[in-house]
Write a structure and sequence with these properties.
Elements (H helix, E strand, L loop, with lengths): L3 E5 L5 H9 L4 E5 L2 H9 L5 E8 L3 E2 L3 H8 L2 E9 L3 E4 L10 E5 L7 H7 L2 E5 L2 H11 L4 E5 L1 H7 L2 E4 L9 E8 L11 E9 L5 H11 L4 E8 L7 E8 L5 H12 L1 E11 L6
Parallel strand pairs: 1-2, 1-3, 7-8, 7-9
Antiparallel strand pairs: 3-4, 3-11, 5-11, 6-9, 6-10, 12-14, 12-15, 13-14
Helix pairs in contact: 5-6, 7-8
C-alpha cells in the first residue's frame, strides 16, 4: 500500500518506528498532537494514523480511548513495538562528559538505574525525539537525549549506550486507523474492538458481560472512563478475540445489546503475532 501514515511526535519517535515496522511502504507524516494525526486522516492528508493505546509498564495512553470513538475512524490493524532506549549525544562526545539527559517524562524513569550509575541528571522534555533534534542543533556537549536509535540516525547523533531501559519487557501497543472499516479479512486469530454504555439498571455490567462467558469469547481488555466529566456517564472500551460473524461472538454481542444503551464497533482486525 502506498500513501501516508500519520503519527504524533517528531521524526524518530517510537510512533515513527511503529509506522516503519508496520507499513514500510507508506510515507510517515509527523503531527504535533494525537488530534492532528486523526485530523490528517479525516481530511485526506494521510491515509492512516498510527496511535499508541497502551504500554506494558505505564498502562493506558491518556486521552486515546476518548479520541477513538469520536474520530469516526476505524481500527484496521495493531502493532507492538519494544521500547528500546538509547543514550545519544553529539558526535565525538564521551559518556563521561554528559551531565544531564533530556527525554519525555515517561521515558526517564525507565532508565533510572543507568542514569544513577553514571551520575547523570534527567530532565523532562515534551518529546524524546524532539529533545534529540534540539541537542543536534544546540552544540551542547554536556547534554544527551534518551530516545530511539532511529532518532539518533535522523539527527546525526552518536549513540553512547544502547538498550539502557531497566525492564526488558517494556512494549507499546499501537492501533492503525483508517477512514474505511474492513471486516472482510480473516486470520487464524481475529480481534474486535468496541465501546459501549450500559443501561441504568441494577447489575447491568455483570449481565452485559455474561454473554461473553457463556459463549466462550475471550475478552482481553476492558476499561472504563467517564464521559464529559460526569461521574454517572461511563463508557467501556473492550477488546475480544474473534470476528463479529463468528457464531459465538455474534451471540455474545447480541446479548450485550440487551443491556446496553449504545454499542459501537471500532474495528475488526488480525491479531498481531506478538500476542502469541
Amino acid at each position: 500500500m502506498t500513501g501516508r501514515i500519520a503519527f504524533q511526535g517528531e521524526p524518530g519517535a517510537y510512533s515513527h518506528e511503529a509506522c516503519i515496522k508496520a507499513r514500510p511502504d507508506m510515507e510517515p507524516l509527523p503531527c504535533r498532537t494525537f488530534e492532528d494525526a486523526i485530523r490528517a486522516v479525516q481530511t485526506g492528508k494521510a491515509d492512516m494514523a498510527m496511535l499508541p493505546v497502551e504500554n506494558s509498564t505505564y498502562g493506558r495512553v491518556a486521552d486515546i480511548h476518548r479520541l477513538l470513538p469520536e474520530s469516526g475512524l476505524h481500527i484496521v490493524d495493531e502493532a507492538f513495538v519494544r521500547v528500546h532506549i538509547s543514550l545519544m549525544a553529539l558526535p565525538g562526545v564521551e559518556i563521561e562528559e554528559i551531565e544531564r539527559v533530556r527525554a519525555h517524562l515517561v521515558l526517564l524513569p525507565q532508565a533510572a538505574e543507568f542514569l544513577k550509575r553514571y551520575g547523570i541528571r534527567g530532565e523532562a522534555a515534551a518529546d524524546s525525539a524532539g529533545a534529540a533534534a534540539e541537542i543536534a542543533k544546540s552544540g551542547d556537549r554536556r547534554t544527551g537525549a534518551l530516545a530511539s536509535d532511529l532518532a539518533a540516525e535522523i539527527n546525526g547523533l552518536h549513540i553512547l549506550a544502547r538498550h539502557i531501559e531497566d525492564h526488558a519487557h517494556n512494549t507499546t501497543r499501537f492501533l492503525l486507523m483508517s477512514r474505511q472499516a474492513d471486516h472482510s479479512r480473516r486470520a487464524e486469530k481475529m480481534m474486535t474492538t468496541f465501546v459501549f454504555q450500559v443501561r441504568n439498571i441494577p447489575a447491568a455490567l455483570y449481565k452485559a458481560l455474561g454473554g461473553f462467558a457463556t459463549n466462550g469469547v475471550n475478552m482481553t481488555k476492558l476499561e472504563s472512563y467517564m464521559l464529559d466529566g460526569s461521574f454517572t456517564a461511563t463508557q467501556f472500551y473492550a477488546d475480544i478475540e474473534g470476528h463479529p460473524n463468528d457464531p459465538n461472538v455474534r451471540l455474545a454481542l447480541d446479548e450485550l445489546g440487551y443491556f446496553t444503551a449504545s454499542m459501537e464497533i471500532l474495528g475488526v482486525y488480525p491479531a498481531a503475532g506478538e500476542r502469541g
